[in-house]
Design goal:
61% of the residues lie in helices and 10% in strands. With 157 residues, it is mainly α. It has one domain. Helix 2 runs antiparallel to helix 3. The longest helix has 26 residues.
Length: 157
């Protein structure tokens, strides 16, 4: 088992852009939270069942149910936070996020993936530097026959 800590380090200009455009809450990698929750619940339920039987045998049935349920809820949250696939910009700021990798191959793949999405975010920030400026795009007119064909093509797919 390997842990990979990923953290973004921003210069003052990038930090200012992050705040100006509220990028900290932006999603870098989208995943289905229901699938992530299902993956997190499986081992948590197993721990809850084990805790139930242990506390049932040691203390009482009702105590075992309550503690087993509590352990299941808490561990679902812990596993969800540790294994979710969705990555927010805020995850990688202020201390970063640790990713668990089960093999050296997965570690290398995750590191390369994080480098790619970080490079993508870097380019978004670079582009954001110019969002307040006005850009003029010249669109040359078509001759009448080409213009008519372009309109008809758009109308009829």
């Amino acid at each position: 088992m390997f842990n990979l800590l990923a953290e973004l380090e921003l210069d003052p200009e990038e930090e200012q852009l992050m705040q100006q455009y509220r990028f900290t809450g932006a999603v870098l990698v989208l995943s289905d939270p229901i699938d992530d929750l299902k993956k997190a619940a499986r081992p948590a339920i197993l721990l809850g069942i084990i805790a139930f039987f242990v506390f049932w045998l040691l203390v009482a049935f009702s105590f075992g149910i309550a503690l087993g349920f509590l352990i299941t809820l808490v561990m679902t949250g812990v596993y969800f936070k540790a294994t979710r696939e969705q990555i927010l910009v805020s995850d990688l700021l202020r201390g970063g996020r640790t990713f668990r990798c089960d093999s050296i191959i997965e570690l290398i793949e995750k590191e390369a993936f994080l480098q790619r999405i970080s490079a993508y975010l870097r380019q978004v920030l670079e582009s954001a530097k110019h969002w307040d400026t006005r850009e003029t795009i010249v669109i040359p007119p078509l001759d009448p026959a080409e213009a008519k064909q372009a309109v008809l093509k758009r109308l009829h797919g």
